[in-house]
């Protein structure tokens, strides 16, 4: 019962941190999500001038209506605000209200589900590059966002070819993966590829180990080759762990028990252990999918459950263990940091999550480090099926923003 009692305190007291692709910034807002054309597995990258539709949604944990305002801003390749004026990247009216909302039905935890799309009757986008949506409570005393969503718009002018291998410049099939890619920018008015072209690479939508601004090894004609670069060597990790809970009255995959306590369902996952070998699980590279047995995927009929995670391993000084996955924002803050139970010999935490299917991992972040490691928890295996997102930005001479001229999602073949 120690794991249950202490974890209740954790989720009630924690506050989300570190802006990621979709993240809540308050305990009252949960399950921020983006889909592209209704596909929950698709990266949030729209094609400029196409019929692509970005779906955005989140829950507010009450049945009280909140007037939420959406503010859309243009960003540069590194995610900072660009120099474009609002009229240069947006058609319509910014700071528009969310008009689509619905109260939850037949759930123990009351919430209101809000959703909208981009483009919509209020706004459409007319420049490529990075974008950020901030959700503002119009009735709050301040204008601090309660949730943020980051996505991109591409004008596909550059062609990208890429390869991933476990045979890297520093090891041979020993738990690393090296990315190599070639960018053909013919017709893009590139003067100096080393400075004009800005690649940004993410592994499984993690920002802690993202690579920004790597330089080409060779330039041949209209092509820049990014090969034999140690910056493009990543820890391979392992396939994500997974649990499924679509009915609080029936434990699903990797769920040991579900307890109703103090007006809240609590799901106790089986205690995990560090992986000693490659796990050939089916995974979605850290994503989650909301689903309920009774509601058949309805966004307002899935209940919330306090999910308790634990991994049995000795105490380690010099850093902290964190829970990783899109549901936790792939962040490193108090909300997903694990605590240690010295009597039971495991690290643990909990998350208030909506019924569905979830991928997760445990990661070690050394004190003062910028990126985390999976070596001590998940292990590193060269044949892991990671997803790499390659964004190619172009800063033209005299331009005031970074165009996104190419995008590629690369999945590693097992």
Cα-atom radius of gyration: 22 Å
CATH fold name of the largest domain, please?
A: Immunoglobulin-like
| CATH top-level class of the largest domain | Mainly Beta
Given the C-alpha coordinates, what overall shape results? globular
Range of strand content: 35-45%
Could you give the count of β-strands? Answer: 30
How many domains make up the coordinates? 3
Return residue spans where pLDDT drops below 50 for at least 5 consecutive residues: 8-19
Can you offer a commentary on this structure?
- The chain is mostly beta strands.
- The chain has three domains: 15-154, Immunoglobulin-like; 163-236 and 385-411, Immunoglobulin-like, CATH 2.60.40; 241-366, Immunoglobulin-like.
- It has helices spanning 2-13, 86-89, 193-196; strands at residues 22-24, 29-36, 45-47, 54-60, 68-75, 90-92, 96-97, 100-103, 112-118, 123-125, 129-137, 147-154, 159-165, 176-184, 197-203, 206-212, 218-220, 223-226, 233-235, 241-245, 255-261, 264-269, 288-290, 304-312, 319-324, 339-341, 346-354, 356-366, 387-394, 403-411.
- The strands form seven sheets. Strands 1, 3, 5, 7, 11 and 12 form a six-stranded mixed β-sheet that branches. Strands 13, 14, 17, 18 and 19 form a five-stranded antiparallel β-sheet that branches. The chain has a five-stranded mixed β-sheet with strand order 21-22-24-27-26, covered by helices on one side.
- A hairpin with a 2-residue loop joins strand 21 (255-261) and strand 22 (264-269).
- It starts with a helix and ends with a strand.
- Mean pLDDT is 93; it is low at 8-19.
């Amino acid at each position: 019962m120690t794991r249950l009692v202490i974890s209740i305190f954790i989720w009630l007291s924690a506050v989300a941190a570190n802006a990621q692709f979709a993240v809540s910034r308050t305990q009252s807002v949960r399950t921020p999500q983006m889909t592209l054309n209704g596909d929950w597995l698709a990266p949030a990258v729209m094609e400029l001038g196409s019929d692509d539709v970005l779906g955005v949604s989140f829950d507010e944990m009450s049945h009280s209506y909140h007037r939420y305002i959406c503010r859309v801003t243009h960003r540069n390749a590194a995610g900072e605000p660009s120099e474009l004026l609002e009229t240069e990247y947006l058609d319509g009216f910014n700071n528009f209200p969310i008009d689509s909302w619905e109260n939850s039905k037949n759930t123990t935890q009351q919430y209101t589900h809000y959703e909208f799309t981009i483009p919509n009757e209020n706004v459409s986008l007319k420049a490529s590059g990075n974008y950020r949506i901030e959700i503002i409570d119009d009735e709050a005393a301040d204008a601090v966002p309660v949730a943020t969503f980051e996505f991109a718009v591409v004008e596909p002018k550059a062609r990208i070819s890429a390869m991933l291998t476990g045979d890297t410049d520093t090891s041979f099939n020993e738990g690393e993966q090296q990315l190599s890619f070639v960018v053909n920018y013919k017709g893009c008015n590139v003067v100096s590829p080393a400075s004009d072209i800005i690649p940004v690479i993410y592994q499984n939508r993690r920002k802690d180990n993202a690579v920004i601004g790597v330089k080409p090894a060779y330039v041949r004609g209209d092509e820049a080759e990014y090969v034999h670069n140690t910056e493009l060597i990543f820890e391979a990790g392992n396939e994500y762990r997974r649990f499924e809970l679509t009915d609080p009255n029936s434990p699903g995959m990797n769920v040991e028990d579900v307890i109703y306590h103090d007006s809240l369902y609590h799901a106790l996952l089986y205690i995990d252990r560090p992986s000693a070998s490659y796990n050939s699980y089916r995974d979605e590279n850290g994503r989650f999918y909301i689903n309920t047995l009774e509601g058949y995927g309805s966004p307002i009929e899935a209940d919330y459950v306090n999910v308790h995670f634990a991994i049995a391993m000795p105490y380690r000084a010099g850093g902290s263990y964190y829970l990783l996955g899109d549901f936790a924002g792939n962040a490193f803050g108090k909300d997903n940091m694990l605590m240690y139970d010295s009597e039971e010999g495991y690290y643990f935490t909990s998350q208030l999550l909506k019924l569905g299917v979830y991928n997760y991992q445990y990661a070690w972040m050394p004190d003062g480090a910028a990126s985390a490691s999976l070596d001590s928890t998940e292990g590193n295996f060269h044949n892991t099926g990671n997803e790499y997102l390659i964004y190619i930005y172009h800063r033209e001479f005299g331009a005031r923003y970074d165009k996104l001229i190419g995008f590629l999602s690369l999945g590693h073949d097992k």
